Amino acid sequence: MDGLAQFLCTGGYERLRRATRTHRGDLVVRLCGEVGLQPSEVVAISPADVRQTGTTRLLDVGDREAFVPAAVAHSIQKYAQSVDDTDPLVDVSERRIQMLVSESGTRAADATGDNRFRDVSTRNLRAAHARQLLHDGVDARIVLAVTAYERVAALEPYLPTPDRETVAAALSGKSALTADGLPAWLRRAVRVVADVGEELMVATSASDIHETVCGRLADTDGYRFAWIAETTGDGLTVRAHAGVAANSVDQMLADRSDLVTDVVEEQTIRTVDVGDTTLLAVPLAGEMTRGLLGIGTLREDVDAIERDLLGALGAQVGHALAVIEHRRLLLADTVTELTFDIGREAAFLPETAATLDCEFELVGIVPADEGVLCYVTTRAVTPDAVFERASTTDEVSDVRFVSDDETGMLLELMLRRSPIRTFAKLGGQIRSYEVGSQGGQLVGETPTDANVRSIVETMTDTFPTAHLTAKRETEPETATDGRFRETLTDDLTERQTAALRSAYFGGYFEWPRDSTAEELADSLSVSSPTLHHHLRIAQKKLLQSFFHDSG
Question: Which Gene3D superfamilies does the entry mention (predicted)?
């Protein structure tokens, strides 16, 4: 069994996942292979059993709490939208769980020609899960606490055994600890992440960021090369590279399209062998995924700690790129204003306005991992009518009534697919979005040097009934308060900005409040203490900027 566990840990698991045909099949494989559940546990859990402690998610399976990686938690959240919180997450029999894994193994064997997949079972997936935790350096006692294994002896087959090269490296000092007790490779990783973070703070352009990150990583012992590919209207475009040729990077991206999709959509790190090098694909995550950071390392086994460090670096780079983009809009003398007419059939809001004969007007947006959190006002319609429409489409993951007064009814919607989200992901700022029974109109701003043709093509390809009706050069909407906003843009993190925007647009500062902190936290998929923490810091920075700017 250890042979199959090792096989799964060295690339077999990802190929098995690619052989699943449904969201349910993929979720079952992930619950066994990344959470370590037995079939009896898979069929017993409900969405409400996932609990959050700080940034860590744990799954209550009765006699223990299993650790849930962020990517799996996201997958559970998506699948759970089709079931009630109190119903079983996967409502099938234990035997069917085993069959789903076996069927995926058969398809993987047929697709790859590797018959080892035909023998893969839920037990092998759990063994691979335990083996990976141990090889990542997790203490055996912790592994026992989060898995179904009860004795250390049961884990013995999965404990890493040092080979001749490992012993030689250790005795020759190559694996020696630094003065502070850290492995040398970890100290180097910590140092390069810290150094790059400091340099990002003073970067003045996106190209500075790209070149700095790639150059510093490629020059660090243990890393062979680095590259950055940024999301554009044409897909991923290589922006910088060091230690590797640009055409080689293009080939890596072309050969591993599935890997690229997983990293961008799930905002999670993936590793893959590229010749004699291990490639780490790190998302440049933030208010949206801005692309990939590719890092080549000579180390075959990348420790979980190093993954977390490089993941934090990717988030830093994503945030730095967002700051540069916002600053360009704030300080520009002119921007390009684009006006799109949005057809009634294009997306949820115009379809709903046409069906219910009502109007929607965008009040504010908050970028989120799952989509875009929108606050809209509407008249001549009931909340229940909008709720009923939202329940019939997967374009909306959640909708909430916020308030109702003489100006209209305020609703909060989490839109997975919308012209608003697409335009924002292309680097634009939404100026207005109004929707009526005949369709909608979106007005947005982009920097004057943006590729307008690519933006328009992406918008119209994504929403065929949308078309550009006006384009003009104008002063940015934020020109009069640009310095104050620039200071806040530099100071606030994306989480703090999201907390502040959702609190403002959601009526948290009204008296009486239109939204509680718990409701806002739920909308942003964070805990209430976390929301309070981000909001308090954001308010302090806002006041500091105001008094400093006015003094």
Answer: Intergrase catalytic core
- The span from the CA of 229 to the CA of 426, in Å, is 15
Q: Are residues 455 and 431 in the same domain?
A: yes
Q: How confident is the model at residue 179 (pLDDT cuts 50, 70, 90)?
A: very low
The backbone torsions φ and ψ at residue 314, rounded to the nearest 5 degrees and listed phi first, read -60, -40
Q: Which domain holds residue 199?
A: 184-329
Q: Is residue 169 domain-resident?
A: no
CA 152 from centroid of its chain's CA atoms: 35
More confident residue, 204 or 362: 362
pLDDT digits (tens, 9 = 90+) for 184-212: 666 677 777 777 777 776 677 788 888 88
Q: Is the bond leading into 512 cis (omega within 30 degrees of zero)?
A: yes
If asked whether residues 356 and 307 sit together in one domain, one would say no
The answer to whether 89 and 79 have CB atoms below 8 angstroms apart is yes
Q: Which of 22, 37, 24, 18 is nearest to 79 (CA)?
A: 24
Where is average pLDDT lowest: 270-274, 410-414, 475-479?
A: 475-479
Number of domains in the chain: 4
Q: Cα–Cα distance between 419 and 442 in angstroms, integer?
A: 8
Q: Is residue 277 over pLDDT 70?
A: yes
396 DSSP β-pair partners: 415
Q: Which residues contact 194 (CB under 8 A, 6 or more apart)?
A: none
Per-residue pLDDT band at 484 (split at 50, 70, 90): low
Among candidate residues 506, 505, 467, 465, the one with its CA nearest the CA of residue 350: 465
Q: How far is CA 427 from CA 420, 496, 549, in A?
A: 11, 20, 27
